[in-house]
Inverse folding.
């Protein structure tokens, strides 16, 4: 395809994006001043930082921006102060003190609640053509047919890749995304790395890093119902325990351009967490869950992918965020604007909460290479799109791996 044809295709896709209601698939929903959906959010429960909060562990080094950091005030609720002048913006300033006991089963359940939806009368559409390969960039294929999200068989530990839920506190309340345990090139067999979406850890151009970020692999492993979860033990809810992010890194493109709506920054909406167990077990995340998946940063062409399978914990209706679901489809291409590179897109009815969930090449149980993560979808829940992971995404994982080399 010529450069002129690609430019026309991208501009046509931009017009489609303007007509579509495209939203980050994080959990929410929370509404901005325009009433657009940002994803499912919930109100923080009363009494946080009081009874039930066992202790606080600080990172080895606190950033200069927190030179006046008071551990007791933080443990007792100071982390809820989101004054815009103090909301950290720089990647080097990510800090996430571990508050033991903060994310108990009840608080995890509350983060999944969703009581609002944004309706859209806009019609989908698509432009472009080509057959994949070198023609992928700048192309938008016709809208995929919706693929119904199906529940994953239990126990998840035996029937899915190393997928779990990512919880975080934001200015709009506790939210939830999905994530996947991925291989650490500098610590084979002992990875502590989790791949997720950039908007699950950082607000993009509108703000900074989120707080109290944790990963819970195989959350609700037996797919217990709400009534059953009320009586469940912590190990039923978090069979492998709770892992706190000691570091998070996302792309500069997401930090500079990321937006709650419209798809800005979505083509590089990728992040990696480095985590450690809240219970100080001494085991790595990979040793604890028994596996980690490799990541393909080669941006496989659409023509080379006969299908991809996406996993996540959708939380917005008709789902409740308690159970893992999956969609399988042959991917197409989506180009939102000339400022955004081309993304993968699949038909899928998963809703908010599935953000950050891994996309895996192929359908077989042996196909466990991560090729993307869920970034955006439409309000009417017909498709999802995720970034094609290239050099910038690889730099994120390499940066986290290098920072903690030899420290597992």
């Amino acid at each position: 395809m010529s450069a002129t044809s690609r430019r026309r295709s991208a501009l046509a896709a931009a017009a489609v994006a303007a007509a579509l209601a495209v939203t980050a698939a994080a959990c929410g929903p929370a509404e901005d001043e325009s009433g657009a959906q940002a994803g499912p959010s919930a109100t923080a429960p009363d009494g946080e930082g009081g009874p039930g909060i066992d202790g606080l562990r600080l990172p080895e080094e606190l950033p200069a921006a927190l030179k006046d950091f008071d551990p007791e005030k933080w443990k007792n609720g100071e982390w809820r102060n989101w004054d815009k002048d103090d909301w950290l913006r720089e990647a080097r300033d990510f800090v996430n003190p571990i508050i033991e006991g903060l994310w108990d089963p009840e608080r995890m359940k509350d983060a999944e609640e969703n009581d609002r939806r944004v309706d859209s009368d806009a019609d989908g559409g698509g432009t472009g053509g080509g057959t994949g390969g070198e023609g992928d960039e700048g192309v938008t294929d016709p809208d995929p047919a919706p693929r119904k999200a199906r529940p994953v068989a239990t126990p998840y530990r035996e029937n899915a890749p190393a997928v779990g839920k990512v919880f975080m506190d934001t200015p709009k309340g506790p939210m939830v995304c999905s994530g996947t345990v991925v291989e650490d090139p500098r610590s084979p067999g002992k990875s502590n790395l989790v791949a997720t979406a950039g908007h699950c850890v950082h607000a993009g151009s509108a703000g900074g890093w989120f707080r109290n970020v944790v990963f819970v692999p195989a959350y609700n492993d037996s797919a217990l119902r709400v009534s059953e979860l009320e009586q469940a033990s912590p190990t039923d809810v978090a069979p492998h325990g709770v892992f706190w992010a000691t570091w998070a890194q996302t792309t500069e493109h997401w930090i500079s351009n990321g937006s709650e709506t419209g798809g800005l920054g979505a083509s590089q909406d990728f992040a990696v967490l480095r985590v450690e167990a809240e219970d100080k077990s001494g085991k790595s995340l990979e040793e604890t869950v028994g596996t980690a998946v490799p990541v393909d940063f080669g941006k496989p062409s659409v023509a080379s992918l006969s299908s991809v399978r996406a996993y996540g914990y959708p939380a917005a209706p008709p789902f409740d965020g308690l159970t893992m679901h999956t969609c399988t489809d042959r991917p197409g291409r989506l180009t939102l604007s000339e400022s955004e590179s081309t993304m993968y897109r699949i038909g899928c009815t998963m809703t908010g909460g599935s953000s950050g969930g891994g996309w895996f090449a192929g359908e077989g149980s042996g196909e466990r290479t991560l090729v993307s993560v869920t970034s955006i979808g439409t309000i009417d829940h017909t498709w999802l799109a995720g970034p094609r992971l290239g050099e910038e995404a690889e730099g994120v994982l390499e940066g986290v791996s290098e920072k903690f080399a030899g420290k597992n």
In short: The chain has nine helices and 18 strands. Residues 1-21, 27-52, 113-133 have pLDDT under 50 and may be disordered.
